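Suppose you are handed only these lines of text.
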Amino acid sequence: MKFIAGNWKMNGTRTALKEMVDALQNVDTENKVILCVPYTMLGLNSGKVSLGAQDVSAHEKGAYTGEISAAMIAETGAKYVIVGHSERRQYHEETNDIVRQKAELALSAGLTPIICVGETMEEKQAGKTMAVIESGVRESIPSDVNQDIIVAYEPRWAIGAGLTPTEAEIAEAHKLIADTLNNMGLYGTPVLYGASVKATNAAEIMSIPNVDGVLVGGASLKPDDFIPIITSVK
Ligand code: PEP
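From them, the structure of the protein bound to phosphoenolpyruvate can be written out as follows.
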């Protein structure tokens, strides 16, 4: 079983979600399909697909106009929330500390956080990829986790750019993440790969050791693109 998670970012409509959910009902798969959609689409009937949010407030409640708390997300019936997505880190200056606070609140509300880590092009070129990934994992994950979490490795330079690292680079990053998680006592935590996944590379990427699934942006928006990714692996 692999995790196939879609990230719709700020795209789609409630009608489009209904069309996607309808299209997914007849897909024969044992993979776990998750759609992380804009807040306004949470709470819609999603059949066998689990819904998730794409961000959560770092505060529990109160005077934070415009923010959405973990408890509010959980109340919609959503099960997952992405935290630390590269676009949040880039445009909203989210640090590992903020990501960890968000993950903590998600966990207390019973949500499974999908915690994203990954290096920028600048960090890659400076030879810091492994250090950034390891500190991202160590600093973004709350201590004493005793619930499910998911980690996503998303090389930031490759997201939405149609670029992908080599298989060897993905394997190296995922081995480091798996080893780091084991050192933290978080055995068996699923680690997803994300950045420019599409039907033509999904199976190959998911055959790399320690890749437990994929986080898909652009190619998760349309059933014709997303379904072949889901069915590309058993
Ligand atoms: C993402 O936004 O998490 C992502 C992986 O995007 P894309 O697949 O479009 O690169």
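What can we learn from it? The chain has a mean pLDDT of 97. The domain at 3-230 is CATH 3.20.20.70 (TIM Barrel).
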